[in-house]
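Design job #97: recover the sequence.
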């Protein structure tokens, strides 16, 4: 018997109009800090990124309803996984858009990312996820995710140099919010936004906030659209370094689908309704991811991913409504036309962004380690040690140690005139090494579970 007192909305439910709008705004507030931060940090236009995030979310939802008869309730925002690849091309200053020429070359890479997701989605539908997991085991996906976060550490610290005190205050306030507001309802979902606001106020006290551009910016402006090109000197570099990062976003997207499917089905049972079993649509979900990135690549926006932040919001509020997410997408599109909004966002000082980035980039790195721990990766196995070590050193050392994060390896100079992008090269090296182990299977060595002793004993 259905529990009539149970409050919540399943994916195909349509809340009343007033609730629909409020629930949509709540989704936008949740995705906003991370999505806008990526744009500001990497040289993309905030208005374009907000508009494209809305479009890709709406399109994915409508296609899921048409394809499987159910909404897959996910919001698509800017992915952090591609930041290193973007910065290697744009060398952007925080809040300063990169040239259209550089963005157009990056868009070629984002389009290829979309195609790669679509191909992997069809492969999974054909052969199953287990086969893909052999090619991209957790030691690879986890190591790449860790590299993405830790390799960006220098960029975060460099932002903080504008004013170390402001950056440190921003960092610690954000950490305190994330720890002590956890489990306290909706406000617990906004530690980054709240930390940024406090940091902004402190920066204003120190005279670091310049709002002169806000008064001269029109209220209504069109998003700054750029179009992809395949002829620039950095196009191949962009395609290689951006598209290979799908290694990190594909398992991330799959994990988010499993997460939301679990919560949706649990809520459905509690409400006495039929389960949705969204986790059966792993391949289709990746195809939707790919379509979203095709949209981003055509418009001049960052590559996207479905947001765990919004998943957590839905779990807390028990609102899994697809129409509510469509409303959020529409609101995000409308925000892309508000010129004053983009101007205000661009006044965020570098020191505040640096404080936030230290935390956010570190969390990305730690999540990569958590993925390996959760998957029970055996770090006493020489194979996993070799794969993880190679990815880590090439990716982190190369990105931090060489200008622009390009390895000065004299091969394929005609294709990669600036050198090989370190993070992507580390990922490919790990995949290649794993492939060797799959073809030429090493002997299995029995290991006793006796405690390890120090060599000094």
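Job complete. Output follows.
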């Amino acid at each position: 018997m259905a529990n009539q007192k149970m409050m919540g909305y399943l994916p195909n439910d349509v809340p009343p109009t007033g609730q629909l709008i409020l629930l949509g705004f709540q989704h936008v507030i949740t995705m906003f800090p991370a999505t806008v931060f990526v744009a500001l940090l990497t040289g993309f236009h905030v208005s374009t990124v907000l508009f494209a995030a809305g479009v890709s979310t709406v399109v994915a939802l409508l296609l899921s309803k048409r394809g499987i008869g159910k909404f897959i309730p996910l919001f698509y925002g800017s992915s952090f996984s591609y930041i290193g690849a973007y910065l290697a091309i744009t060398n952007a200053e925080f809040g300063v858009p990169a040239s259209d020429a550089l963005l157009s070359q990056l868009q070629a890479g984002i389009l290829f990312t979309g195609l790669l997701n679509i191909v992997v989605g069809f492969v999974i539908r054909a052969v199953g996820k287990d086969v893909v997991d052999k090619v991209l085991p957790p030691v690879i996906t986890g190591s790449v995710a860790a590299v993405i976060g830790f390799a960006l550490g220098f960029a975060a610290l460099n932002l903080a140099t504008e004013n170390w005190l402001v950056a440190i205050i921003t960092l610690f306030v954000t950490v305190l919010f994330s720890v002590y507001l956890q489990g306290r309802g909706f406000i617990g979902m906004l530690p980054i936004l709240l930390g940024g606001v406090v940091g902004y106020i402190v920066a204003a006290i120190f005279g670091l906030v310049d709002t002169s551009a806000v008064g001269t910016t029109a209220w209504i402006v069109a998003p700054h659209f750029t179009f992809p090109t395949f002829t620039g000197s950095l196009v191949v570099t962009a395609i290689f370094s951006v598209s290979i990062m799908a290694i990190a976003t594909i398992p991330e997207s799959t994990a988010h689908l499993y997460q939301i499917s679990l919560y949706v089905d649990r809520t459905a049972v509690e409400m006495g309704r039929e389960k949705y079993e969204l986790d059966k649509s792993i391949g289709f979900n990746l195809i939707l991811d790919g379509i979203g990135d095709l949209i981003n690549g055509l418009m001049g926006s960052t590559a996207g991913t479905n947001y765990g932040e919004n998943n957590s919001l839905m779990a807390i509020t028990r609102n899994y409504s697809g129409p509510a997410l469509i409303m959020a997408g529409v609101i995000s599109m409308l925000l892309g036309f508000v010129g004053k909004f983009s101007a205000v966002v661009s006044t965020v000082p570098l020191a505040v962004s640096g404080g936030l980035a230290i935390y956010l980039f570190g969390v990305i790195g730690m999540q990569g380690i958590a993925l390996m721990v959760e998957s029970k990766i055996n770090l006493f196995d020489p194979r996993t040690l070799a794969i993880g070590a190679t990815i880590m050193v090439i990716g982190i050392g190369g990105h931090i140690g060489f200008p622009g994060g390009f390895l000065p390896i004299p091969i394929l100079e005609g294709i990669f005139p600036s050198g090989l992008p370190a993070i992507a090269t580390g990922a490919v090296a790990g995949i290649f090494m794993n492939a060797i182990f799959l073809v030429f299977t090493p002997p299995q060595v029995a290991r006793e579970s006796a405690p390890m002793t120090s060599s000094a004993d």
